[in-house]
Diguanylate cyclase
Amino acid sequence: QAKRKGRNTYCFFNDEMGSAVSRRLRIENGLRYALKNNELYLCYQPQVESKTGRIKGLEALIRWKSPELGMVPAGEFIPIAEETGIIVEIGKWVLENVCKQNKIWLTNGYNFDSISINISSIQLKQADFLDTVREILDTSGVEPQKIEIEITETAFMESLEENINKLKGLKDMGVKISLDDFGTGYSSLNYLRRLPISTLKIDKSFIDNICDSSSDRDITYGIIQLANKINLNVVAEGVEGKEQVDILKNMNCDIIQGYYFSKPIGSNEVEEVLKRGYFSI
Ligand code: C2E
Ligand code: MG
Ligand code: MG
Ligand code: MG
């Protein structure tokens, strides 16, 4: 910015410092207007049943096209939105819009089991979180069963008891819950038993190496067997290749999600995909 103002402006940062700081600040600043200015939108990634190729569901993933910065990856702006607290507002927008879209698709005859929504720990922490979800479900007229909430294990390790109660509240409403990025946090098999979840999502970092690394393959198989044993659905995230699909299918991994079948796509494309209903597998 100093540059834009011309040569006579004082500059306290060198270029490198300046660019790192200003990107952070620009994201933080830009996020404040992103909602109002309609810069946020949702993409959806299909989740595919490994036995049949049927599209079981979709995961909603937020996208931000900033007029100043262009496309900013969710992995970059979500943590900043969390630090500033604006994630609460953004998260509510995501819930509302996914529920609206969900209802429209079902009303128009596009079928799926559920749409997954990522929920930040900051959002979960809000005292009125359950009321917000209930209100949005009521307003949109979506069956709670058609919604699945994704939370990461690290998200609720702090104030575990409180969070378990919130998740129970969601479950009592009929909303499904899945544990995202499983295996990357402080997984304790002890609390796994106590969580009212229906699905485990095996993190991409394990899936990446299942073809080449026998230990990652063993870990993945172990998680799948555990999930099957305790009656949880299991999703493999970030599956990109045919060989991975074959391995996961042989391991009885129920659901596969990844670029191999589809990248996250816009709602028009989703309708094409749902019309077909299946991927060849
Ligand atoms: P996540 O929930 O674990 O989502 C999976 C990420 O992996 C997504 O990145 C998805 O686009 C990407 N992915 C899926 N399949 C493949 C694959 O085969 N290869 C590769 N390389 N990547 C794949 P994305 O959309 O950039 O989101 C990153 C993270 O940002 C998400 O991780 C989630 O933690 C967060 N996020 C995204 N949308 C939301 C949202 O609406 N609310 C909240 N709170 N967080 C969100
Ligand atoms: Mg997720
Ligand atoms: Mg994940
Ligand atoms: Mg993730």
Remarks:
- The pocket of magnesium ion (ligand 3) is lined by residues 180-181, 201, 237 (CB under 6 Å).
- Residues 27 and 77 are 7 Å apart (CA to CA).
- The chain has twelve helices and nine strands.
